[in-house]
Amino acid sequence: MKTIDINKIKFIGLLLFSSIVFTSCESYLEEDPLNQVDIGSFYQNESDALAGLTGAYAQLKSGNGYYRQQFLSNLYASSDQGQSSFNHRDFRFGTITNSEPLIERTWIDVYTAIKDANNVIARVPEVPEIDETLRLRILGEARFLRALHYFNLVRCYGEVPLRTTPVKPGEKGLPLSPVVDIYKVIIEDLEFAGQNCWGFNETRNGFTNNIGRVTNAAAHAMLAKVYVQMASSLRTAQAGDTGNEIYLTLTETPDFYYQKAIEQADLALQQPYYRLASDLNEYETIFDAKNGNNFEMLFDIQGASIAGEGTAVSNLFSPRNSGLAGGGFGGVNRLQPQYINKSINKNDLRYLNSIIYFYQDETNTYELGPGLTGYIRTVTATGASAGNFSRVFTSKYIDTDATTEYTSQQNWHVIRLADVYLLRAEALAELNQDPALANDDINVLRTRVGMTDLFDGTGLTMGEFREALLRERGVELFMEGHRWFDLTRMGVYNEYCIRTYGNNVGARGPEDYTWPIPLIESSANDNID
């Protein structure tokens, strides 16, 4: 259980892990190595600094293991929502080992991204010819990216090697760091980003914060998410949940972190440009492939129809060969009927307006059944019954213009405004032990889509509130990469997976709260036992 041999990463060029052979039904494409110039001579002016930062952004989707493809299905299959492809069987059964190739590739790509962020953070302060305000913005964006990478690592793998400077020749791999040290870096990076990143499309001194780059609102929102992760994980660990016991090294109380989360959520919600949809019709547009980076989206991974610039998001979450995504593999991430029936309110307008009701593939026609948990399937040519299909696809990632697996312009939404409202609702209720304090933040999300059934936490126990909150998060944020983290931090992973999959497949233990450190790291890094 360890990490890539960071000692063997070439931080001046792209890593070439030629020894790793990876195949998947979700991917038939190989990545070509991306060459970089010697960083020692590269960072000479503001253009170089911006180019280095752009390269750091590119690593979010340069390899198949991160936001371009596999990471998204890994998160989905680890949750209680659905099983994903057959390659993700061990994620669904909770039987992942340290030789699992899907976690290896994610590990490699995340640490590659950290390498590029570290280079920007280390080199840009030395650039002689640069506007100082722009310098701070570049550093803020790079530190946001590094914080995001380590936040993903610590939530997925637990204790990991913590590298915050470029590797030096001959330097060995690092040992695992306790989560308290990892979160210290994450918090410091996001605080810096919140202070130095600019607003959406903001211009200063002749420079514009281009759409798609990190904003100060995104930094505050992500920090609120970090604090809630820390607070709830520590709270459940103190209550005896051994799956979260690594959080017992944190130095403050859960209430301290909940209060910090409220403060950061307030700052995020005060920023200009961002707002909630005004009604149901507008809500339905926020997931359109051509409407990325809209007013509800705080930070997106950018998709593009240009070859090499897209992601597999649309393919992974939309029906295969339906014309709703590019060709080839796809359609692997679908909602399970038990999740729909047992863990959310399927009559919620947010669910009803973000699922696919009708589609056709090469042979059959699929129409959503009256139970809202699957499709009635008929042969298109004859109208004859072809049996029912007991899964549901989301409409959040449709891209009818995509022509291949990786030419989708659909963005992946890392964090959006609705999440911030729900995080603040949770933190207010937990801090004060009063579920009624969550009413406003939960109901503003309901009323924006025209729901008249409002939430009222008055009289609920905290246990009842947490159940209700998970239903709200489950229906608002389903298939957006948050669910596994919500279930683990709140200490209900086993309960909810059994609810969806039954006792045999759904059983989860403390060891399932994180993925194992990949064997490729433990076998190469002598500093990890």
UniProtKB/TrEMBL annotation:
<keyword id="KW-0472">Membrane</keyword>
<keyword id="KW-0998">Cell outer membrane</keyword>
<dbReference type="InterPro" id="IPR011990">
    <property type="entry name" value="TPR-like_helical_dom_sf"/>
</dbReference>
<protein>
    <submittedName>
        <fullName>RagB/SusD family nutrient uptake outer membrane protein</fullName>
    </submittedName>
</protein>
<comment type="similarity">
    <text>Belongs to the SusD family.</text>
</comment>
<feature type="domain" description="SusD-like N-terminal">
    <location>
        <begin position="45"/>
        <end position="227"/>
    </location>
</feature>
<feature type="domain" description="RagB/SusD">
    <location>
        <begin position="340"/>
        <end position="502"/>
    </location>
</feature>
<keyword id="KW-0732">Signal</keyword>
<dbReference type="Pfam" id="PF07980">
    <property type="entry name" value="SusD_RagB"/>
</dbReference>
<dbReference type="InterPro" id="IPR033985">
    <property type="entry name" value="SusD-like_N"/>
</dbReference>
<dbReference type="Pfam" id="PF14322">
    <property type="entry name" value="SusD-like_3"/>
</dbReference>
<dbReference type="InterPro" id="IPR012944">
    <property type="entry name" value="SusD_RagB_dom"/>
</dbReference>
